[in-house]
């Protein structure tokens, strides 16, 4: 079997699946714009970068993103065409639909099954847009979001099947296409992400943290409102007053992955340190850290805080649960799809700083009483998200497309 993966910033969600299929004897190629690491057994082919156009006097508002997606689609199509002329058509193409990379895949390979990774469909209600009460969704916002979905809509119409990682994320997509979308998470390596009572994490100042220490942790790709960083910091400042021995350890960069940066050229770390007055000696900012260090962070955590707008579910919260961390999560989808309050973690309203601080204090004051929740968290990931089982299911879903039946006949994938 020959498969071509497509992802703008490879390998993305195909980090485990691509080398797994290669190990199963598949011939695997990844087409991408940037690549942060080589994958064993996977051929990587990069296309020219396409940046969003800016500064044109005749530009129509919000056209920059759709135009960039079209340009990316053209680059991927050129690459697919070149590969097909050299190698022949693959058995299946599987790509992330979010950046336009799949727009013209069917025009190049009309007889090749096309599978789309369906991560997030933008809507002006029920998700990240307008979630913060201080943000009003304007007509301009609605138009921007509609245009941002244009590449996804064209891809949904062309695809033979799709995969979405959670039930809530799948449910964001138009109902007309949901019978072609299966729910299957990418998977969590539960052998790597596991509890370790002997875990140690050395901080930059030389402090060694151990499992059982009064450590409250937080992790995100970037420290920003979408992942509840301001709420975490406000609650941490309150907890620090009641617990003189607590140490807060934060992993994440100072950039912006989602949403908007703060005013005056500062980052959210600087803004929240100034607002809360939290003693710098009580909190350690690790920045972006290697994955192995992130796992140790989860293993030594007395309480791990994961807050998010209704948006894409982070791998990190599932990895923390697999490590047996006591996760305090926000009562937002799709977090509530995974964490059941009092069974495998604790849940708090996203904007309720008092409740979040109380949950953090509870975790610190009663560290030994939450062993059942920690075990429940680990069990949830092992039963529902274990990498081995998710890889086998993804392989089966991909295999279900290779009969090359017309898309109109292929309507049962969403129930697979």
TrEMBL record:
Protein name: Putative glycosyltransferase
Residue ranges occupied by any Glycosyl transferase family domain in the UniProt entry: 25-191, 211-376
Gene Ontology biological process terms from the UniProt entry: lipopolysaccharide biosynthetic process
Alphabetical UniProt keywords: Transferase
Pfam families noted in UniProt: Glyco_trans_4_3, Glycos_transf_1
Keyword Transferase: yes
PANTHER family: GLYCOSYLTRANSFERASE WBBK-RELATED
Keyword Transferase applies: yes
GO molecular function, one term: glycosyltransferase activity
């Amino acid at each position: 079997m020959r498969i071509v993966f497509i992802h703008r910033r490879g390998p993305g969600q195909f980090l485990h699946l691509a080398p797994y299929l290669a190990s199963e004897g598949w011939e695997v190629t990844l087409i991408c714009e940037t690549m942060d690491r080589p994958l064993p057994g996977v051929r990587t082919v990069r296309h020219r970068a396409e940046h969003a156009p800016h500064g044109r006097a005749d530009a129509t508002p919000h056209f920059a993103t759709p135009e960039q997606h079209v340009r990316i689609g053209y680059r991927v199509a050129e690459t697919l065409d070149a590969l097909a002329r050299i190698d022949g058509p693959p058995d299946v193409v599987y790509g992330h639909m979010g950046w336009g990379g799949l727009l013209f895949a069917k025009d190049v390979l009309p007889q090749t099954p096309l599978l789309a990774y369906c991560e997030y469909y933008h809507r002006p209600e029920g998700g990240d847009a307008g979630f913060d009460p201080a943000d009003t969704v304007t007509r301009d916002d609605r138009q921007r979001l509609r245009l941002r979905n244009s590449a996804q809509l064209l891809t949904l119409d062309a695809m033979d099947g799709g995969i979405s990682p959670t039930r809530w994320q799948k449910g964001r997509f138009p109902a007309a296409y949901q019978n072609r979308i299966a729910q299957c998470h990418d998977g969590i390596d539960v052998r790597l992400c596991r509890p370790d009572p002997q875990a140690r994490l050395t901080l930059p100042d030389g402090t060694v943290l151990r499992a059982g220490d009064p450590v409250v942790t937080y992790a995100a790709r970037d420290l920003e409102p979408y992942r509840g960083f301001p709420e975490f910091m406000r609650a941490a400042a309150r907890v620090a007053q009641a617990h003189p021995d607590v140490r807060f350890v934060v992993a994440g960069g100072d950039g912006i992955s989602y949403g908007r940066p703060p005013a005056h050229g500062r980052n959210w770390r600087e803004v929240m340190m100034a607002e809360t007055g939290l003693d710098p000696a009580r909190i350690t900012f690790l920045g972006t850290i290697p994955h192995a260090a992130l796992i140790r962070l989860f293993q030594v955590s007395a309480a791990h805080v994961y807050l998010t707008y209704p948006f894409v579910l982070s791998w990190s919260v599932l990895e923390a649960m697999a490590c047996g961390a006591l996760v305090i999560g926000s009562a937002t989808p799709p977090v509530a799809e995974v964490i059941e309050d009092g069974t495998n973690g604790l849940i708090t309203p996203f904007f309720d700083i008092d409740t979040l601080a109380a949950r953090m204090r509870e975790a610190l004051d009663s560290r030994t009483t939450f062993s059942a929740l920690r075990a429940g968290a680990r069990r949830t990931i092992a039963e529902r998200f274990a990498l081995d089982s998710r890889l086998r299911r993804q392989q089966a879903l991909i295999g279900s497309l290779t009969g090359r039946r017309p898309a109109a006949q292929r309507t049962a994938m969403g129930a697979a």
